[in-house]
């Protein structure tokens, strides 16, 4: 018996048992009495037992029918509750929102704003991962990710949040002691703090734009660090020159702890986006998170942390 027919037979039986009448059950369901009677008979044949005793005046439950009625009512009640719960989740953010954030931006700018977001939706729980690695939303059971750079999967939705630009900077104390570089080539004569890409273990090459053309430069120095905020702290302490996204070093620049350099050679920025699966019916929790990220991005643009 097809699943739909099995469910229909439960509903028909419950109505017939509740009203003790095929005619009344038929009226409630918009069916003919004979169709209701046949449906109950097919159910009894499938179960191998009589559920309803028939007389010319009324129906009565058999012992098996009484037990089966309780189970059937519970099944239908559970189904109704499941449908209502799903409908609520489509209109009100609820359940667990699983997100993955780019580490530095997540720690410094997104996570501090999340308590206010969570306070708006008391039925919502947040499961947060900080990672730069390439993830699969389905395999990793994620609702959304925030990433810097283009995401390779064209089947996903990328909601642009802004542009991340890199900044070359150093502390006032370092520049006072070692001088200020005027061109990217001058960096070869300076102490530069290299950043190791955690996913590959490779040292990141420094990116510039010269005469409208992109160019790369390998630099040298005493420090090689695989953590952006740690490298920033080293630069603030005078260890050397760094190149990082503005959302990493912007606050230190605003405080005067770091001084931006080589601004005429700033490379083109890369997009920051919130990425989520392409679905016909997007859950309310994902919609709410995307809206939150768009609002937060506008605040970060106003502060100069990211660019439009």
Give the percentage of residues in beta strands. Answer: 15-25%
The biggest beta sheet is recorded as: 5 strands, mixed
The average pLDDT score comes to 91
- What is the CATH topology of the largest domain? D-Maltodextrin-Binding Protein, domain 2
Category by helix and strand content: alpha/beta
Overall radius of gyration: 32 Å
The total strand number stands at: 14
CATH architecture of the largest domain: 3-Layer(aba) Sandwich
- Lateral arrangement of strands in the main beta sheet: 4-3-5-14-6
Would you write up a description of this structure?
The protein has 308 residues and is an alpha/beta fold. It has three domains: 89 residues, Winged helix-like DNA-binding domain superfamily/Winged helix DNA-binding domain (Arc Repressor Mutant, subunit A, Orthogonal Bundle); 86 residues, D-Maltodextrin-Binding Protein, domain 2; 100 residues, Periplasmic binding protein-like II (D-Maltodextrin-Binding Protein, domain 2). The chain has a five-stranded mixed beta sheet. A three-stranded antiparallel beta sheet has the order 12-7-13. A two-stranded antiparallel ribbon has the order 1-2. Helix 1 crosses helix 2, helix 1 crosses helix 3 and helix 1 packs across helix 4. The chain is rod-shaped, with a radius of gyration of 32 Å. The two termini are 58 Å apart. The model has no long low-confidence stretch (mean pLDDT 91).
């Amino acid at each position: 018996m097809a699943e739909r027919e099995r469910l229909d037979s439960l509903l028909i039986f419950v109505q017939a048992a509740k009203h003790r009448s095929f005619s009344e059950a038929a009226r409630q369901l918009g069916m003919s009495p004979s169709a209701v009677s046949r449906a109950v008979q097919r159910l009894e044949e499938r179960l191998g037992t009589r559920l309803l005793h028939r007389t010319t005046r009324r129906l009565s439950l058999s012992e098996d029918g009484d037990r089966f009625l309780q189970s059937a009512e519970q099944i239908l009640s559970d189904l109704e509750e499941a449908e209502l719960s799903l409908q609520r989740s489509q209109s009100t953010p609820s359940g667990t929102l699983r997100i993955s954030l780019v580490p530095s931006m997540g720690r410094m700018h997104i996570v501090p704003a999340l308590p206010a977001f969570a306070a708006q939706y008391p039925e919502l729980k947040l499961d947060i991962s900080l990672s730069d690695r390439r993830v699969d939303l389905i395999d990793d059971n994620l609702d959304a990710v925030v990433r810097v750079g283009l995401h390779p999967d064209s089947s996903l939705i990328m909601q642009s949040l802004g542009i991340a630009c890199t900044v070359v900077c150093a502390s006032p104390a370092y520049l006072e002691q070692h001088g200020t570089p005027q061109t990217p080539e001058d960096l070869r004569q300076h102490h530069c703090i290299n950043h190791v890409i955690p996913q590959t273990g490779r040292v990141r090459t420094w990116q510039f734009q010269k005469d409208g053309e992109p160019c790369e430069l390998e630099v040298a120095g005493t420090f090689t660090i695989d953590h952006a905020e740690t490298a920033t702290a080293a630069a603030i302490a005078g260890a050397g020159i760094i190149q990082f996204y503005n959302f990493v070093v912007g606050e230190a620049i605003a405080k005067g702890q770091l001084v931006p350099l080589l601004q005429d050679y700033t490379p083109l920025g890369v997009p920051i986006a919130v990425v989520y699966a392409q679905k016909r019916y997007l859950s309310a929790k994902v919609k709410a998170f995307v809206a939150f990220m768009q609002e937060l991005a506008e605040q970060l643009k106003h502060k100069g942390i990211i660019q439009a």
